[in-house]
Amino acid sequence: RRFEESKSMAFSSGRLNVYSAKALLSRGLLYKEDWAGAAANADAVIRANKYSLLENDKLLSDFKITGNSETVFEVINTPVDNRNTDGLSYMFSQDGYGDVLATDDLYNIYGPGDVRRNFLKKDKRAGNGGEDPANIVTKYSDVSTFTESIKVMRLAEVYLIRAEALAHLDRPGEAQQDLNRVAFRSDPNAKPVTATGEALLDAILLERRKELAFEGHRLFDLIRTKRSFTKYLASDKTIPVVWPSTKVILPIPQRELDANPNIRNQQNEGYN
User: What is the mean pLDDT of each run of 10 residues along the chain (272 residues)?
Assistant: First the structure.
């Protein structure tokens, strides 16, 4: 079915339209390393002028608003849905399970003037472990009405997709502009990125980590860019994950292997 564009068309952030489809396609093409395709689709979304980055002083408050100017697509939750203990906010909030904390490693990558650092709060962990201070995540925090909508695609990510694709297409000046647009929105005192080559790609990956924290991207970014990383556990324990590692991909569950003879002898590499 073909999408028809119209100036009078009403867009809902909870329904797919031609722009959210292009935005999601740009992400998929980035993962496939189709740099030209990723850049073209991200560019189409940005040039449509249907969305705008939230202002610095509105980022913290308006991020939580369903249908804000920056959200391209989201899963809308209503009081009728009543996600309750299944809600993402329940995993973060110390009034819920409070299972998920941020590491000092993440907290420290934000400059003191970066408003995104305020999506984290230094406080005592209420549950098991009782870390004090702990880096409490507040990006999703509603454990009363459970109506916070889950962001799937935001304009900030689209800019960073275009930046990464353009960097690979040897167009560093344009890539720097997109990267700096996202960085300056959140931290007016940030130093402009002027790097090129691998250093520019590293800067884009770092900005993705800052901007998209707790939105489900980091592990996939590390895997697709073939990076070694450290897995942080409770009680200051760590596990080094050195690329290439077969354990970044989970095993196929045994019940699925038993149920399908076509894959019975095709377990993922690294598992017996």
Answer: 39 91 98 98 98 98 96 93 88 92 94 97 89 94 92 98 98 98 97 98 98 97 96 85 92 94 91 84
Task: Give the tokens for residue 258.
Answer: 């038993």
E runs forming strands in 106-241: 120-123, 134-137, 150-154, 229-232, 238-241
Q: Are 29 and 42 in contact (CB under 8 A)?
A: no
Strand partners, 75: 150
The residue among 93, 21, 35, 106 whose CA lies nearest residue 64 is: 93
- Say which amino acid occupies 245: S
Cα 25 to chain centroid, rounded: 15
Q: CA 170: distance to chain centroid?
A: 25
Q: How far is CA 192 from CA 54, 70, 173, 199, in A?
A: 20, 22, 12, 13
Cis before residue 251, ω within 30 degrees of 0?
no
Alpha-carbon distance of 208 to 93, in angstroms, equals 23
Query: Among candidates 201, 200, 204, which has minimal Cα distance to 212?
Result: 204
**Residues paired with residue 241 on neighbouring β-strands, in sequence order:** 229
CA 74 to CA 68: how far, in whole Å?
A: 10
CA atoms within 13 A of residue 262's CA, in its CB half-sphere = 0
**29-to-18, 74, 228 alpha-carbon distances in Å:** 16, 20, 23
Amino acid, res. 170: D
Q: In this structure, what are the phi and psi dihedrals at residue 229, rounded to the nearest 5 degrees?
A: -155, 170
